[in-house]
Amino acid sequence: MKFLLVFDFDHTIIDENSDTWIVKCAPEKKLPNGLRNSYQPGHWTEYMGRVFVYLGENGVKEDEMKRTMTTIPFTAGMVDLLDFIGENKELFDCIIVSDSNAVFIDWILKAADFHELFDEVFTNPAAFNSTGYLTVQNFHTHHCAKCPKNLCKRMVLKEFLDKQLEQGVCYARIVYIGDGGNDLCPVMFLKKDDIAMPRQGYTLEKKLSQLAQDLNPVECSVLVWSSAADIMSYLKLLTKE
Questions:
Q1: Which residues are Mg(2+)-binding (predicted)?
Q2: pLDDT tens digit string along 63-98?
Q3: Of the candidates 144, 145, 149, which has an alpha carbon nearest to the alpha carbon of residue 159?
Q4: Of all helices (H) and strands (E), which one includes residue 53?
Q5: pLDDT interval class at 215 (50, 70, 90)
Q6: Confidence of residue 147 (pLDDT cuts 50, 70, 90)
Q7: Is 220 exposed, middle or buried (0-12, 13-18, 19+ CB in 10 A)?
Q8: Contact, 107 vs 70, CB < 8 A?
Q9: Of 139, 196, 155, 228, nearest in space to 6 by CA
């Protein structure tokens, strides 16, 4: 029986938001007000599409974007944690479910040599078009009222588990590691043996603690982390069970 580790990416594996980091490539490292103010809640992917057009129009090329993205720092302790998971891969299946995009995640993981560690990456598809502009699409369509329109992480997790079950893979426990508001929906899907690991001080932790105060706690256990060393300590206990 393996354990399934589900990671968010921005502010979880890396210590920044990859989508806002790319603004370092823009002229004067900022976006015009009109573009910045064009974001509508729940429509982040469309907004990023406009940001990528702006960067393209200002002559920002793929290699410059790649160079910039691979300077994003990993979260404290994360490199050690990923090394530990790699050394114990027979115990862990590992997936990323992220609202970033395929190009950014690919660049960052490959540059740090962590690409092979993850069994699957579920994120918004992205590619460079014939004019050399980065384009991004919604991951899927769904009918979940709680989630942004391009991605319901619960649906992704459920479909992945169903597919694994068809292949005879059943997990002893799911460990969900994340930080954001869009991580709440999949965490509410977890069962009592599973573990949610929200990052301390971030939206997911605040929402989970509010649910507990409202006497409506989630079914799974909750273990807060501030450094990936906290996650590693827990995983070491798991491997001894």
A1: 8, 10, 179
A2: 999 999 999 999 999 999 999 999 999 999 999 999
A3: 144
A4: helix 44-57
A5: confident
A6: confident
A7: buried
A8: yes
A9: 196
Q: What is the DSSP string of 215-240?
A: T---SSEE--BSSHHHHHHHHHHHHH
DSSP string, 7-36: E--BTTTBSS-HHHHGGGGSGGG---HHHH
* Active site amino acids: 8, 10
Query: DSSP assignment of 139-161, as one string?
Result: S-----TTS-TT--HHHHHHHHH
pLDDT, the chain, mean: 95
214 is in an annotated binding site: no
* Of the options 3.90.660.20, 3.30.43.10, 3.40.50.300, 3.40.50.1000, the CATH number for the domain spanning 3-15+74-125+144-239: 3.40.50.1000
Q: Is 10 annotated as a binding residue?
A: yes
Would you say 193 is a known binding-site residue? no
* Residue 19 labelled as part of a binding site: yes
Count CA within 13 A, CB hemisphere, residue 141: 0
Q: What is the percent of the chain where pLDDT is above 70?
A: 100
Any idea where the domains of the chain sit in the sequence? 3-15+74-125+144-239
Q: Amino acid identity of 76?
A: A
Q: How far apart are CA 220 and CA 186, in angstroms?
A: 11
Provide φ and ψ at 67, rounded to 5°: -60, -45
Question: Is the model's pTM score more than 0.85?
Answer: yes
Q: How far is CA 178 from CA 9, 59, 108, 226, in A?
A: 8, 34, 18, 11
